[in-house]
Write a structure and sequence with these properties.
The protein is mainly α and 447 residues long. It has 20 helices and no strands.
Length: 447
């Protein structure tokens, strides 16, 4: 069943184009104002990209970790550098990717049965403060959000999709390749493969579909994933001695939000204090220095990336086991920060208060509509929505354990906007039904 009351008269065919052009203009304006941000290498992607450009993909880096950051985004930047481009070219690429994400959101909405309401989702993505802001930074948000939107566009079935012998296999191959690209951009997407596999098996069994065909399509998708990810794993095997297909960053990210100092300094405090604290992470530098000293004593200062990553994983799980109550509080805190509507004090101090709280109000309204959309989908279940919802669930669950903040939600912005638009459609349908009932009752009263 499609979304209720999704067709509205008077929607011009030019409106989607206007929204897409407006999205491009907003991102161009942000790049004009924040052009210096493209040189702010907060996560060392520019450093890694320069290494790729200088020594190539298969040669060990000098002076920095080899596999601490996922490779796709720095490889894209390295290609720009090798072609003679700089910050302006990177900014232009991110503008194109951000604008394309808006167009994909509109297309996804129509594919999911939202019809004209898909334009609302596109508008929400076009105006989203997170996506606009991170268009100006050399970070993965813009590329990864585009890839996630493209993955959903290709993977989610449409009600009008006709069965054929070739299309499912081509689709499975495309899904595998795009998923592999997503995994090389942010490895946190990996668990959704398991969630999707379980869902497909359950759906196949209930619908009496061919298990053989499902397994064949799954194998094709797996080959697509392996084809994209294999060079990264082989590189790491050659350089590090182990076929790492994620990164050597996972242990640090898990430990950063699950250590005794974090539990004591952050998780054990009242939640509102975290929002008012002007320097919630002030303890981290001293903690990290002590941590490195302890790690050097235990595994030696010459230990490689993999040994350090494994040591940090072990240390994180030891601290979690030692403080299970505070770990659960930390999970709740990470959930709240992931779905927060305003950034914490250090980040929001960079912006005008009116802009911060205006954006926060917009996010709050959108999340309320998102909940309405979830409720509507739970009452009238539609299989095309399963994969987008699995992605939302995946990132929410992953960031219960790993470091979390509003930025981690950025790749879900198009999917949240789609569900929120479904919520608007639900509300519109309810209002129209009540209006029609009132008119009918009034007509009966006159007779």
């Amino acid at each position: 069943m499609s979304a209720p009351s999704t067709r509205r008269p008077g929607i011009s065919r030019l409106l989607p184009i206007l929204v897409i052009v407006s999205a491009a203009m907003l991102r161009a304006a942000a790049l004009g104002v924040g052009s210096s941000h493209l040189s702010e290498d907060r996560d060392d992607y520019l450093v890694v990209a320069q290494q790729y450009a200088n020594v190539g993909f298969w040669t060990p880096f000098k002076g920095i970790p080899n596999s601490f950051r996922p490779p796709l985004y720095p490889l894209v930047i390295a290609a720009i550098l090798k072609a003679g481009g700089g910050n302006a070219a990177l900014g232009l690429l991110q503008l194109v990717l951000g604008t394309a994400t808006v167009a994909l959101t509109w297309q996804m909405g129509r594919q999911l049965g939202l019809a004209s309401w898909s334009l609302v989702a596109a508008i929400l993505v076009a105006l989203d403060p997170l996506l606009i802001d991170y268009t100006t930074f050399p970070m993965t948000e813009t590329l990864f959000t585009f890839l996630v939107a493209l993955l959903v566009k290709v993977a989610a079935p449409a009600a009008s999709e006709k069965a054929s012998r070739r299309r499912p296999l081509l689709k499975a191959a495309a899904v595998g390749v795009i998923f592999g690209g997503c995994a090389l951009c942010r490895p946190t997407i990996w668990p959704v493969a398991g969630l999707a596999a379980v869902w497909l098996c359950v759906r196949s069994r209930r619908a009496g579909e061919s298990v053989k065909q499902l397994m064949f399509a799954g194998s094709i998708a797996a080959v697509g994933v392996a084809t994209v990810v294999a060079p990264w794993a082989l590189r790491n095997w050659q350089i590090l001695g182990s076929p790492v297909f994620t990164t050597t960053h996972g242990g640090y990210t898990l430990l950063l939000g699950n250590n005794r100092e974090f539990f004591r300094q952050v998780a054990d405090r009242p939640l509102l204090e975290e929002w008012r604290d002007s320097a919630p992470d002030r303890f981290q530098r001293a903690w990290f220095q002590d941590l490195v000293s302890e790690m050097d004593r235990q595994i030696g200062p010459a230990a490689g990336e993999i040994a350090q990553d494994r040591w940090m994983y072990r240390r994180a799980w030891q601290d979690i086991a030692a403080e299970p109550r505070l770990f659960l509080r930390a999970c709740l805190l990470r959930f709240a920060e992931f779905w927060n509507v305003v950034p914490l004090t250090p980040s929001r101090s960079e912006f005008v208060s009116v802009a911060v709280w205006g954006a926060g109000t917009g996010y709050l309204i959108e999340l309320v509509l998102f909940v309405v959309g979830i409720v509507g989908l739970s009452r009238r279940w539609e299989s095309p929505w399963v994969f987008p919802l699995l992605l939302i669930l995946n990132f929410t669950l992953v960031h219960l354990f790993y470091w979390s903040n509003m930025r981690m939600r950025a790749p879900l912005v198009p999917l949240i906007a789609l569900v929120a638009s479904r919520g608007i459609a639900e509300i519109y349908s309810l209002v129209m039904r009540r209006s029609q009932t009132s008119l009918a009752d009034a007509a009966k009263g006159r007779h």
